[in-house]
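Re: weekly structure request thread

Next one in the queue (340 aa):
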Amino acid sequence: MKTSRFARETAGIGKNSEIVTRRNTRSFAASINTFAAKDARGSIVKREDDGDDSSSLSSLDSPATLEIEDAPPLLTLSKRKRGTFSPATTVTEASTIKLKTRNSPRRAGVKTEDGSPAKIKRGRKQPAKKVIDNDSGEVTIHPPANWQEIYGLVQEMRKKILAPVDTMGCESLAEDTRSPRDQRFQTLIALMLSSQTKDTTTAIAMKRLQSELPSPPGFTLEGILAVPPDTLNALIYPVGFHNNKTRYIKATALRLHSQFHSDIPDTIDGLTSLPGVGPKMAYLCLSAAWGRDEGIGVDVHVHRITNLWGWHQTQQPEETRRCLEARSVCPWGGGVGSVR
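Done, posted below.
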């Protein structure tokens, strides 16, 4: 155990004066220091010139001198705890400390008449209403009363932000020099690559396919059928789940060639029958490739946001899509996906 210089010197003095010393701990050194200070004031140990030679407290050099352990307990001699002998600090009376109430950022500056912080009342959510016809059992969903106000605010906010999807969305990645059939095929592949992938990464992968696939035929259905899977996987490596997408793209190309006359389907049922293509991707592809808006492409983001707005209470994106596409909701639901 490390000891201070004062403790080491004190231990040497104790040996020379034949005083039985204790283990040289920091608390022991501190108690000696305090005892010496008391001795200087003459409150405990008498000086040599204040008494006779026969006094038991006349000299520290005498064998009969009072041992440190027998002195009145000025300080505790137990094992020092961390921070016990810390330097003196200025202590402020608790009564002089005034605690300032910290308001939430949302409540800053909002107070009641008596000066206390006010509670901000949040607007009540107005979810869509589901009405069931008792006779026919048909379910009708009425949109929330304030949906136009919320959607208008989102549109205004969206106009101020230029997102990557505005300049490199899947509907804009097909080559303009290709035939309409090849452009539709490239749009479908772009949508398949975009799953769980950023728009910038999808655009890079599409450019690699357009520039590095052997030409002719290049980035066409025939080119995807001819390219080896390993080469295709290397070209789309930056996108998420590229191994699965390689298998899906190859299987989709085979099915398009054998069942759809080497073109992409123009129906939702036909598009969702392709490997790796779900309802969201099918509705987006039908709109971008064929120019037909027959539904809303609802992903997990649209599902969660519209539930937070209180427009409905659904558990899955498909359930959310059906709510948004309900008869009375359809006019305003068509633009939800375009806001992205």
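Residues 27 and 300 are 65 Å apart (CA to CA). The first strand starts at residue 129 and ends at 132.
Next request, please.
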